[in-house]
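Pilot study result, target chain (351 residues):
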Amino acid sequence: MKHLLPILLLLALIGSSAIAQQNNGITFSQVVARHDTNQDGVISKAEFTGNPALFNRMDSNHDGSVNEAEFLVAKQKLNQLIGQSGRKTPARTLPEGVTMKRDIEYASIDGQSLKLDLYLPEASETTPPLVVWIHGGGWKSGDKAHVNPAILRLTGEGYAIASINYRLKDLSIHPKNIHDCKGAVRWLRANAETYNYDPERIAVGGGSAGGHLALLLGLSSSVNELEGEVGGNTDQSSSVKAIIDFYGPSELIVMAEESERFKRVHEFTEAQLKDASPLTYLTDKAPPVLVFHGDKDGTVPVGQSQLLHDRYQERSLNSQLHILNGAGHGGPAFTSDIIYDQIKSFLKTHL
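Predicted structure:
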C-alpha cells in the first residue's frame, strides 16, 4: 500500500478512464488541459483541483507551480513504482540522456542572486546549439522553471536549453530586466566550454513578457544603454542568431492604445514606452524571428505580432508569423507537435 499511494494519487490527476485510453500513459498536455485555467502552460497550486499531496510531490522546487519538467520527473518515479508493483510501465516521455543543472548563479546584484537552469544533452555528435528561454508573467511574476514544453523537447534533438530568471516588479524597472537577460547571455557565452554548448549558435525565446524581452534582447544588440554590466563578462557579446516569440508585445505605444488592461496596469510616458519597445531598435541587421500568437488573445493583442511581422517584411527581413485560430494567451495550443516541428525547422535553418 505504501508504494501504491503515489500511483493512485497520480492516476487521479486526469481520471482513470482517460488513462485507459492512452497507450503511453499520462501526458503533460492532458494535465494542462484539465487544470491550467489561465492557460499559461504551467499549473499553479491555486489552479490544481486534485489531491494537494500529489501537487506537493510534483512541485519539486517548491515554487507553488508545476511545469512539464517537474511533471515528467514525477512520472518517471511513478513508472518505477508501477514496475515494482507489477503493472505495465508507460513509455517514457522525458528525452533520455539529458542532464538538468538547476539554480546556477549568473549574477548577483543589489543583494539578489540571479540564477538559471541548464538542460544539457549528454551525448551529441557536434557541440550543441543553445536556446535561451525567458519566462513570462507580466514582468512581475513567473520563474525559470516555466519553460514552454515545445522548447524543452528540443533537448531530445541535441539542443541545450538555458532558462533564466531576471529581476521582477513591472515595466517601471526597465531597463533592469533587459540588463539581466543580456547579462545571462554574456555569462552563458563565457561559460560555453564548461557546459559544452556552442557559443556561436545561440537563439533566444520567450512567452508573453518573456517574448517581449526576447525580442528586445535580439533587436538591441548594438544598443549600449540596454546592455548594462550585470554579471560582468563585458568582453562577451549578448547577440543572438534567432528569436522565437510567443505572443510578446513588440510596440508598447501601440499596445497602450489597443489594450485598456495594459494602459490601466502600466502608466508610463510615451518616451518610456518607446524606450522599452523592441521595434524601436529594429534595423536591417535584425536576426530572423519566429512568432506565434492566438487570435483570441485577450492580454496581448494579436496586432502586436502582426505589426512586428509587417515591419520585418518592410525591410525584407526573415519573419515567420503563425496565428493560431481560437487560441488565447498561452495554453496547450502553443505546445503541440505542430508548434514543435515549426520551431525545429526554424532553428535548423538559422542555427
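One observation from the pilot: Residues 150 and 339 are 7 Å apart (CA to CA). A full batch analysis is planned for the follow-on phase.
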